Protein backbone atom coordinates (compact mmCIF):
# COMPACT_ATOMS: atom_id res chain seq x y z
CA UNK A 1 0.00 0.00 0.00
CA UNK A 2 1.40 3.42 -0.97
CA UNK A 3 1.45 5.84 1.99
CA UNK A 4 0.59 9.50 1.51
CA UNK A 5 3.57 11.75 2.28
CA UNK A 6 3.40 14.70 4.66
CA UNK A 7 6.14 17.33 5.13
CA UNK A 8 6.18 19.36 8.36
CA UNK A 9 8.12 22.63 8.20
CA UNK A 10 8.62 24.27 11.60
CA UNK A 11 11.66 25.48 13.55
CA UNK A 12 10.09 24.48 16.88
CA UNK A 13 11.43 20.96 17.24
CA UNK A 14 9.09 19.84 20.04
CA UNK A 15 5.96 20.94 18.18
CA UNK A 16 7.28 19.45 14.95
CA UNK A 17 7.97 16.09 16.61
CA UNK A 18 4.56 16.08 18.30
CA UNK A 19 2.78 16.71 15.02
CA UNK A 20 4.95 14.12 13.34
CA UNK A 21 4.04 11.40 15.86
CA UNK A 22 0.36 12.31 15.66
CA UNK A 23 0.33 12.11 11.87
CA UNK A 24 2.38 8.90 11.70
CA UNK A 25 -0.16 7.16 13.94
CA UNK A 26 -2.75 7.81 11.23
CA UNK A 27 -0.69 5.90 8.66
CA UNK A 28 1.01 8.79 6.88
CA UNK A 29 4.70 8.94 5.96
CA UNK A 30 6.20 12.00 7.63
CA UNK A 31 9.27 14.08 6.79
CA UNK A 32 10.38 17.03 8.93
CA UNK A 33 12.27 20.23 8.10
CA UNK A 34 13.40 22.98 10.45
CA UNK A 35 13.75 25.74 7.85
CA UNK A 36 12.86 26.59 4.26
CA UNK A 37 16.19 25.46 2.82
CA UNK A 38 15.67 22.00 4.29
CA UNK A 39 12.04 22.10 3.13
CA UNK A 40 12.98 22.72 -0.52
CA UNK A 41 15.41 19.77 -0.42
CA UNK A 42 12.77 17.55 1.18
CA UNK A 43 10.21 18.48 -1.48
CA UNK A 44 12.61 17.56 -4.30
CA UNK A 45 13.56 14.27 -2.65
CA UNK A 46 10.27 13.08 -1.12
CA UNK A 47 7.63 14.73 -3.35
CA UNK A 48 5.12 15.17 -0.49
CA UNK A 49 1.38 15.28 -1.05
CA UNK A 50 0.69 17.80 1.71
CA UNK A 51 2.93 20.32 3.52
CA UNK A 52 2.26 21.70 7.00
CA UNK A 53 4.22 24.94 7.19
CA UNK A 54 4.83 27.54 9.90
CA UNK A 55 4.63 31.26 9.06
CA UNK A 56 7.83 32.51 10.67
CA UNK A 57 10.94 30.49 9.91
CA UNK A 58 14.63 31.30 10.42
CA UNK A 59 15.33 31.80 6.72
CA UNK A 60 12.06 33.17 5.38
CA UNK A 61 8.30 33.48 5.50
CA UNK A 62 5.90 30.59 5.12
CA UNK A 63 3.37 32.72 3.25
CA UNK A 64 5.89 33.52 0.50
CA UNK A 65 6.99 29.87 0.56
CA UNK A 66 3.45 28.82 -0.38
CA UNK A 67 3.51 30.91 -3.54
CA UNK A 68 6.96 29.54 -4.51
CA UNK A 69 5.95 25.91 -4.01
CA UNK A 70 2.58 26.19 -5.75
CA UNK A 71 4.23 27.80 -8.78
CA UNK A 72 6.53 24.77 -9.22
CA UNK A 73 4.54 21.88 -7.72
CA UNK A 74 0.93 22.29 -8.81
CA UNK A 75 -0.40 19.12 -7.21
CA UNK A 76 0.88 19.62 -3.65
CA UNK A 77 -1.42 21.13 -1.02
CA UNK A 78 -0.13 23.37 1.79
CA UNK A 79 -1.68 23.95 5.20
CA UNK A 80 -0.35 26.97 7.06
CA UNK A 81 0.46 26.86 10.78
CA UNK A 82 -0.36 30.31 12.19
CA UNK A 83 0.49 31.75 15.59
CA UNK A 84 -2.34 32.93 17.86
CA UNK A 85 -3.68 36.28 16.75
CA UNK A 86 -2.22 36.04 13.26
CA UNK A 87 -5.36 35.07 11.38
CA UNK A 88 -4.46 37.71 8.80
CA UNK A 89 -1.49 35.49 7.91
CA UNK A 90 -3.93 32.67 7.22
CA UNK A 91 -6.06 34.84 4.97
CA UNK A 92 -3.02 35.96 2.97
CA UNK A 93 -1.87 32.34 2.76
CA UNK A 94 -5.22 31.34 1.26
CA UNK A 95 -4.81 34.01 -1.38
CA UNK A 96 -1.37 32.59 -2.17
CA UNK A 97 -2.86 29.12 -2.71
CA UNK A 98 -2.86 27.46 0.71
CA UNK A 99 -5.40 24.70 1.28
CA UNK A 100 -6.28 26.00 4.76
CA UNK A 101 -4.71 27.21 7.98
CA UNK A 102 -4.75 26.13 11.63
CA UNK A 103 -3.57 27.72 14.87
CA UNK A 104 -0.34 26.21 16.17
CA UNK A 105 -0.76 24.02 19.23
CA UNK A 106 -4.46 24.76 19.72
CA UNK A 107 -5.93 22.99 16.71
CA UNK A 108 -4.21 19.59 16.88
CA UNK A 109 -7.60 17.86 16.82
CA UNK A 110 -8.27 19.49 13.45
CA UNK A 111 -5.00 18.36 11.85
CA UNK A 112 -5.98 14.83 10.78
CA UNK A 113 -9.45 15.70 9.33
CA UNK A 114 -7.86 18.60 7.45
CA UNK A 115 -5.05 16.40 6.17
CA UNK A 116 -7.55 13.83 4.92
CA UNK A 117 -9.46 16.51 3.03
CA UNK A 118 -6.22 17.83 1.51
CA UNK A 119 -5.15 14.29 0.52
CA UNK A 120 -8.53 13.72 -1.13
CA UNK A 121 -8.06 16.91 -3.15
CA UNK A 122 -4.52 15.90 -4.15
CA UNK A 123 -5.81 12.50 -5.31
CA UNK A 124 -8.49 14.23 -7.36
CA UNK A 125 -5.96 16.59 -8.97
CA UNK A 126 -3.67 13.67 -9.83
CA UNK A 127 -6.52 11.83 -11.53
CA UNK A 128 -7.53 14.94 -13.44
CA UNK A 129 -3.91 15.50 -14.49
CA UNK A 130 -3.78 11.93 -15.76
CA UNK A 131 -7.01 12.47 -17.67
CA UNK A 132 -5.61 15.65 -19.20
CA UNK A 133 -2.60 13.71 -20.44
CA UNK A 134 -4.91 11.13 -21.95
CA UNK A 135 -6.98 13.79 -23.70
CA UNK A 136 -4.30 14.12 -26.36
CA UNK A 137 -4.36 10.42 -27.24
CA UNK A 138 -5.97 9.74 -30.60
CA UNK A 139 -8.17 6.67 -30.47
CA UNK A 140 -10.06 5.89 -33.65
CA UNK A 141 -12.08 2.91 -34.78
CA UNK A 142 -8.96 1.36 -36.30
CA UNK A 143 -7.51 1.29 -32.77
CA UNK A 144 -10.18 -1.20 -31.68
CA UNK A 145 -8.75 -4.69 -32.17
CA UNK A 146 -10.96 -7.60 -33.16
CA UNK A 147 -12.81 -9.21 -36.04
CA UNK A 148 -15.51 -11.18 -34.21
CA UNK A 149 -19.04 -10.32 -35.24
CA UNK A 150 -19.99 -9.00 -31.78
CA UNK A 151 -17.24 -6.37 -31.75
CA UNK A 152 -17.59 -5.42 -35.42
CA UNK A 153 -21.34 -4.89 -34.90
CA UNK A 154 -20.56 -2.52 -32.03
CA UNK A 155 -17.97 -0.67 -34.13
CA UNK A 156 -20.41 -0.25 -37.01
CA UNK A 157 -23.06 1.19 -34.69
CA UNK A 158 -20.51 3.59 -33.21
CA UNK A 159 -19.40 4.73 -36.68
CA UNK A 160 -23.00 5.53 -37.61
CA UNK A 161 -23.74 7.58 -34.49
CA UNK A 162 -20.37 9.39 -34.33
CA UNK A 163 -21.26 12.28 -36.71
CA UNK A 164 -24.82 12.65 -35.39
CA UNK A 165 -23.96 14.60 -32.21
CA UNK A 166 -26.41 12.38 -30.33
CA UNK A 167 -26.06 11.34 -26.69
CA UNK A 168 -24.65 7.80 -26.53
CA UNK A 169 -24.93 5.21 -23.75
CA UNK A 170 -22.25 2.51 -23.76
CA UNK A 171 -23.15 -0.69 -21.91
CA UNK A 172 -20.69 -3.39 -20.98
CA UNK A 173 -18.74 -5.09 -18.23
CA UNK A 174 -15.69 -3.48 -16.66
CA UNK A 175 -12.67 -3.74 -18.93
CA UNK A 176 -14.52 -4.07 -22.25
CA UNK A 177 -13.10 -0.82 -23.67
CA UNK A 178 -15.89 1.69 -23.14
CA UNK A 179 -13.57 4.71 -22.90
CA UNK A 180 -11.73 3.70 -26.09
CA UNK A 181 -15.11 3.59 -27.86
CA UNK A 182 -16.05 6.98 -26.43
CA UNK A 183 -12.83 8.57 -27.69
CA UNK A 184 -13.22 6.93 -31.09
CA UNK A 185 -16.76 8.34 -31.39
CA UNK A 186 -15.50 11.79 -30.41
CA UNK A 187 -12.61 11.68 -32.89
CA UNK A 188 -14.93 10.61 -35.70
CA UNK A 189 -17.34 13.48 -35.00
CA UNK A 190 -17.44 17.13 -36.00
CA UNK A 191 -16.13 17.87 -32.49
CA UNK A 192 -12.81 16.16 -33.21
CA UNK A 193 -10.02 18.51 -32.24
CA UNK A 194 -12.14 20.00 -29.48
CA UNK A 195 -11.81 18.91 -25.83
CA UNK A 196 -12.55 15.33 -24.84
CA UNK A 197 -12.93 15.15 -21.08
CA UNK A 198 -13.50 11.92 -19.16
CA UNK A 199 -14.52 11.21 -15.58
CA UNK A 200 -15.27 8.04 -13.63
CA UNK A 201 -18.31 8.82 -11.46
CA UNK A 202 -17.46 6.06 -8.98
CA UNK A 203 -14.09 7.55 -8.04
CA UNK A 204 -15.22 10.49 -5.90
CA UNK A 205 -17.47 11.44 -3.02
CA UNK A 206 -20.69 13.28 -3.82
CA UNK A 207 -19.23 16.69 -2.90
CA UNK A 208 -16.02 16.25 -4.90
CA UNK A 209 -17.90 14.81 -7.86
CA UNK A 210 -20.26 17.80 -7.92
CA UNK A 211 -17.34 20.25 -7.80
CA UNK A 212 -15.42 18.34 -10.45
CA UNK A 213 -18.32 18.14 -12.90
CA UNK A 214 -19.98 21.53 -12.35
CA UNK A 215 -17.16 23.64 -10.90
CA UNK A 216 -17.55 26.22 -8.15
CA UNK A 217 -17.44 29.92 -7.37
CA UNK A 218 -14.92 31.55 -5.08
CA UNK A 219 -16.18 31.40 -1.50
CA UNK A 220 -18.50 28.42 -2.07
CA UNK A 221 -16.64 26.63 0.74
CA UNK A 222 -13.55 27.14 2.91
CA UNK A 223 -10.87 26.20 0.40
CA UNK A 224 -12.63 27.73 -2.63
CA UNK A 225 -10.37 30.78 -2.90
CA UNK A 226 -10.99 31.28 -6.60
CA UNK A 227 -13.44 30.21 -9.30
CA UNK A 228 -12.95 26.73 -10.75
CA UNK A 229 -14.28 25.42 -14.03
CA UNK A 230 -15.95 22.04 -13.93
CA UNK A 231 -15.44 19.38 -16.59
CA UNK A 232 -18.71 20.35 -18.28
CA UNK A 233 -17.34 23.82 -18.89
CA UNK A 234 -13.88 22.48 -19.80
CA UNK A 235 -15.55 20.26 -22.41
CA UNK A 236 -17.47 23.15 -23.99
CA UNK A 237 -17.73 22.60 -27.77
CA UNK A 238 -16.35 19.09 -27.25
CA UNK A 239 -17.36 15.83 -25.56
CA UNK A 240 -17.77 14.84 -21.91
CA UNK A 241 -17.50 11.11 -21.18
CA UNK A 242 -19.07 10.06 -17.88
CA UNK A 243 -17.97 6.53 -17.04
CA UNK A 244 -19.88 4.45 -14.47
CA UNK A 245 -22.82 6.85 -14.72
CA UNK A 246 -24.89 4.40 -12.67
CA UNK A 247 -22.75 5.28 -9.63
CA UNK A 248 -23.66 8.98 -9.77
CA UNK A 249 -25.42 10.02 -6.53
CA UNK A 250 -29.17 10.45 -6.97
CA UNK A 251 -28.99 14.10 -5.87
CA UNK A 252 -26.58 14.99 -8.71
CA UNK A 253 -28.62 13.24 -11.39
CA UNK A 254 -31.16 16.05 -11.51
CA UNK A 255 -28.39 18.61 -12.12
CA UNK A 256 -27.04 16.51 -14.99
CA UNK A 257 -30.56 16.14 -16.42
CA UNK A 258 -30.90 19.93 -16.48
CA UNK A 259 -27.70 20.25 -18.53
CA UNK A 260 -28.93 17.65 -21.02
CA UNK A 261 -32.28 19.41 -21.39
CA UNK A 262 -31.25 23.09 -21.34
CA UNK A 263 -27.49 23.10 -22.07
CA UNK A 264 -26.93 25.22 -18.98
CA UNK A 265 -26.00 24.61 -15.35
CA UNK A 266 -25.25 26.38 -12.08
CA UNK A 267 -21.83 26.11 -10.45
CA UNK A 268 -21.54 25.24 -6.77
CA UNK A 269 -22.03 28.48 -4.84
CA UNK A 270 -23.21 30.44 -7.87
CA UNK A 271 -26.58 32.07 -8.54
CA UNK A 272 -26.26 32.47 -12.31
CA UNK A 273 -26.43 29.87 -15.04
CA UNK A 274 -23.58 29.00 -17.40
CA UNK A 275 -24.41 27.90 -20.95
CA UNK A 276 -22.41 25.15 -22.69
CA UNK A 277 -22.37 23.18 -25.92
CA UNK A 278 -21.32 19.68 -24.93
CA UNK A 279 -21.95 16.22 -26.33
CA UNK A 280 -22.43 13.57 -23.65
CA UNK A 281 -21.30 9.97 -23.84
CA UNK A 282 -22.10 7.87 -20.77
CA UNK A 283 -21.12 4.34 -19.84
CA UNK A 284 -22.07 1.80 -17.21
CA UNK A 285 -21.73 -1.85 -16.26
CA UNK A 286 -24.98 -1.70 -14.30
CA UNK A 287 -28.52 -2.60 -15.34
CA UNK A 288 -29.94 0.94 -15.40
CA UNK A 289 -33.46 -0.27 -16.16
CA UNK A 290 -33.41 -2.30 -12.96
CA UNK A 291 -31.91 0.65 -11.08
CA UNK A 292 -34.82 2.79 -12.30
CA UNK A 293 -37.28 0.20 -10.98
CA UNK A 294 -35.40 0.15 -7.67
CA UNK A 295 -35.49 3.99 -7.48
CA UNK A 296 -31.67 4.15 -7.61
CA UNK A 297 -31.55 5.99 -10.94
CA UNK A 298 -33.84 8.71 -12.28
CA UNK A 299 -36.15 7.46 -14.98
CA UNK A 300 -36.14 10.81 -16.83
CA UNK A 301 -32.32 10.88 -16.87
CA UNK A 302 -32.21 7.28 -18.09
CA UNK A 303 -34.38 8.12 -21.12
CA UNK A 304 -32.28 11.23 -21.81
CA UNK A 305 -29.10 9.14 -21.85
CA UNK A 306 -30.60 6.13 -23.63
CA UNK A 307 -31.02 7.86 -26.98
CA UNK A 308 -28.54 5.58 -28.73
CA UNK A 309 -27.24 2.50 -26.93
CA UNK A 310 -24.24 0.38 -27.87
CA UNK A 311 -23.52 -2.86 -26.00
CA UNK A 312 -19.87 -3.91 -25.85
CA UNK A 313 -19.32 -7.68 -25.71
CA UNK A 314 -17.31 -9.35 -22.92
CA UNK A 315 -14.07 -11.04 -23.98
CA UNK A 316 -15.50 -14.52 -23.32
CA UNK A 317 -17.99 -13.87 -26.16
CA UNK A 318 -15.25 -12.95 -28.64
CA UNK A 319 -12.56 -15.55 -27.96
CA UNK A 320 -11.42 -15.57 -31.58
CA UNK A 321 -10.02 -12.07 -30.88
CA UNK A 322 -7.86 -13.22 -27.95
CA UNK A 323 -4.80 -14.24 -30.07
CA UNK A 324 -4.59 -10.91 -31.90
CA UNK A 325 -5.15 -8.95 -28.67
CA UNK A 326 -2.50 -11.00 -26.87
CA UNK A 327 0.01 -10.49 -29.70
CA UNK A 328 -0.65 -6.75 -29.65
CA UNK A 329 -0.08 -6.50 -25.89
CA UNK A 330 3.03 -8.69 -26.17
CA UNK A 331 4.60 -6.28 -28.67
CA UNK A 332 3.70 -3.25 -26.55
CA UNK A 333 5.10 -4.59 -23.27
CA UNK A 334 8.10 -6.36 -24.80
CA UNK A 335 9.20 -3.04 -26.27
CA UNK A 336 8.83 -1.38 -22.86
CA UNK A 337 10.15 -3.98 -20.42
CA UNK A 338 11.66 -7.10 -22.03
CA UNK A 339 12.70 -6.84 -25.70
CA UNK A 340 13.92 -10.46 -25.68
CA UNK A 341 10.32 -11.74 -25.66
CA UNK A 342 9.14 -12.38 -29.21
CA UNK A 343 6.35 -14.94 -29.19
CA UNK A 344 4.03 -17.22 -27.18
CA UNK A 345 4.00 -21.01 -26.99
CA UNK A 346 1.07 -22.93 -28.45
CA UNK A 347 0.07 -24.11 -24.95
CA UNK A 348 0.22 -20.54 -23.64
CA UNK A 349 -2.11 -19.29 -26.36
CA UNK A 350 -4.51 -22.23 -26.01
CA UNK A 351 -4.70 -21.59 -22.30
CA UNK A 352 -5.52 -17.92 -22.83
CA UNK A 353 -8.47 -18.93 -24.98
CA UNK A 354 -9.77 -21.29 -22.27
CA UNK A 355 -9.87 -18.67 -19.50
CA UNK A 356 -13.07 -16.87 -18.47
CA UNK A 357 -11.54 -13.34 -18.40
CA UNK A 358 -13.96 -11.85 -15.90
CA UNK A 359 -11.88 -8.66 -16.10
CA UNK A 360 -12.13 -8.73 -19.90
CA UNK A 361 -9.53 -6.95 -22.07
CA UNK A 362 -8.08 -5.12 -19.07
CA UNK A 363 -7.36 -8.42 -17.31
CA UNK A 364 -5.79 -9.93 -20.45
CA UNK A 365 -3.61 -6.85 -20.83
CA UNK A 366 -2.41 -7.10 -17.21
CA UNK A 367 -1.68 -10.84 -17.53
CA UNK A 368 0.40 -10.34 -20.69
CA UNK A 369 2.32 -7.48 -19.09
CA UNK A 370 3.15 -9.65 -16.07
CA UNK A 371 4.14 -12.61 -18.26
CA UNK A 372 6.47 -10.47 -20.37
CA UNK A 373 8.20 -9.14 -17.26
CA UNK A 374 8.66 -12.65 -15.81
CA UNK A 375 9.75 -14.38 -19.03
CA UNK A 376 13.33 -15.71 -19.07
CA UNK A 377 13.47 -16.47 -22.78
CA UNK A 378 12.07 -15.35 -26.12
CA UNK A 379 8.83 -17.33 -25.69
CA UNK A 380 6.01 -16.97 -23.18
CA UNK A 381 5.11 -20.32 -21.61
CA UNK A 382 2.47 -21.58 -19.18
CA UNK A 383 4.90 -21.04 -16.30
CA UNK A 384 4.76 -17.28 -16.98
CA UNK A 385 1.03 -17.18 -16.18
CA UNK A 386 -0.30 -16.60 -12.63
CA UNK A 387 -1.02 -19.84 -10.80
CA UNK A 388 -4.76 -19.25 -10.80
CA UNK A 389 -4.73 -19.04 -14.60
CA UNK A 390 -2.38 -22.00 -14.98
CA UNK A 391 -4.94 -24.07 -13.13
CA UNK A 392 -7.97 -22.65 -14.96
CA UNK A 393 -10.45 -25.14 -16.40
CA UNK A 394 -8.87 -28.07 -14.58
CA UNK A 395 -12.25 -29.80 -14.54
CA UNK A 396 -12.23 -29.87 -18.33
CA UNK A 397 -10.19 -32.53 -20.12
CA UNK A 398 -9.39 -29.92 -22.78
CA UNK A 399 -7.27 -27.99 -20.28
CA UNK A 400 -4.69 -30.79 -20.16
CA UNK A 401 -1.92 -30.39 -22.72
CA UNK A 402 -1.16 -34.12 -22.45
CA UNK A 403 -2.46 -37.25 -20.71
CA UNK A 404 0.73 -38.42 -19.00
CA UNK A 405 0.68 -38.80 -15.21
CA UNK A 406 3.19 -36.01 -14.61
CA UNK A 407 0.98 -33.45 -16.36
CA UNK A 408 -2.07 -34.50 -14.36
CA UNK A 409 -0.08 -34.44 -11.11
CA UNK A 410 1.37 -31.00 -11.84
CA UNK A 411 -2.04 -29.48 -12.56
CA UNK A 412 -3.58 -31.11 -9.49
CA UNK A 413 -0.84 -29.72 -7.23
CA UNK A 414 -1.41 -26.28 -8.78
CA UNK A 415 -5.12 -26.50 -8.00
CA UNK A 416 -4.50 -27.49 -4.36
CA UNK A 417 -1.92 -24.71 -3.87
CA UNK A 418 -4.43 -22.18 -5.18
CA UNK A 419 -7.10 -23.62 -2.88
CA UNK A 420 -4.79 -23.21 0.16
CA UNK A 421 -3.64 -19.77 -1.04
CA UNK A 422 -0.03 -20.95 -1.12
CA UNK A 423 -0.05 -22.61 2.31
CA UNK A 424 2.26 -25.56 1.58
CA UNK A 425 1.71 -27.32 4.93
CA UNK A 426 -2.05 -27.40 4.34
CA UNK A 427 -1.52 -28.39 0.69
CA UNK A 428 0.66 -31.33 1.72
CA UNK A 429 -2.02 -32.45 4.20
CA UNK A 430 -4.76 -32.32 1.55
CA UNK A 431 -2.56 -34.14 -0.98
CA UNK A 432 -1.73 -36.73 1.69
CA UNK A 433 2.02 -36.44 1.03
CA UNK A 434 4.95 -35.29 3.14
CA UNK A 435 5.92 -31.61 3.15
CA UNK A 436 9.40 -32.49 1.85
CA UNK A 437 7.83 -34.41 -1.03
CA UNK A 438 5.63 -31.42 -1.89
CA UNK A 439 8.64 -29.07 -1.96
CA UNK A 440 10.49 -31.51 -4.22
CA UNK A 441 7.55 -31.68 -6.65
CA UNK A 442 7.16 -27.88 -6.62
CA UNK A 443 10.81 -27.59 -7.62
CA UNK A 444 10.49 -30.40 -10.19
CA UNK A 445 7.46 -28.83 -11.84
CA UNK A 446 8.79 -25.25 -11.40
CA UNK A 447 5.66 -24.18 -9.51
CA UNK A 448 7.42 -21.73 -7.15
Q: Quick recap of the structure?
A:
Helix content is 47%, strand content 15%. The chain has helices at 13-24, 36-46, 62-72, 87-95, 108-135, 149-161, 178-187, 206-214, 231-234, 250-262, 288-293, 299-305, 322-337, 346-354, 360-374, 387-390, 405-419, 424-431, 435-444; strands at 5-9, 29-33, 50-54, 56-57, 60-61, 77-82, 100-103, 168-171, 196-200, 215-216, 228-229, 239-243, 264-266, 273-275, 279-284, 308-311, 343-344, 379-380.
Tell me the domain tally. 4
Beginning-to-end CA distance, first to last residue: 24 Å
Largest sheet: 5 strands, parallel
Structural class: alpha/beta
Helix content: 40-55%
Radius of gyration, CA atoms, in whole angstroms: 27 Å
The CATH first-level class of the largest domain comes to Alpha Beta
Report on this structure:
- The protein has 448 residues and is of the alpha/beta class.
- It folds into four domains: 5-127, Rossmann fold; 136-313, Rossmann fold (3-Layer(aba) Sandwich), CATH 3.40.50; 315-385, Helicase, Ruva Protein, domain 3, CATH 1.10.8.60; 390-448, Homeodomain-like (Arc Repressor Mutant, subunit A).
- The protein is 47% helix and 15% strand.
- The chain contains 19 helices and 18 strands.
- The protein has helices at 13-24, 36-46, 62-72, 87-95, 108-135, 149-161, 178-187, 206-214, 231-234, 250-262, 288-293, 299-305, 322-337, 346-354, 360-374, 387-390, 405-419, 424-431, 435-444, and strands spanning 5-9, 29-33, 50-54, 56-57, 60-61, 77-82, 100-103, 168-171, 196-200, 215-216, 228-229, 239-243, 264-266, 273-275, 279-284, 308-311, 343-344, 379-380.
- The chain has a five-stranded parallel beta sheet, sandwiched between helices.
- A hairpin with a 2-residue loop joins β4 (56-57) and β5.
- α13 (322-337) packs across α15 (360-374).
- The protein is globular.
- The two termini are 24 Å apart.
- Mean pLDDT is 87; it is low at 394-402.
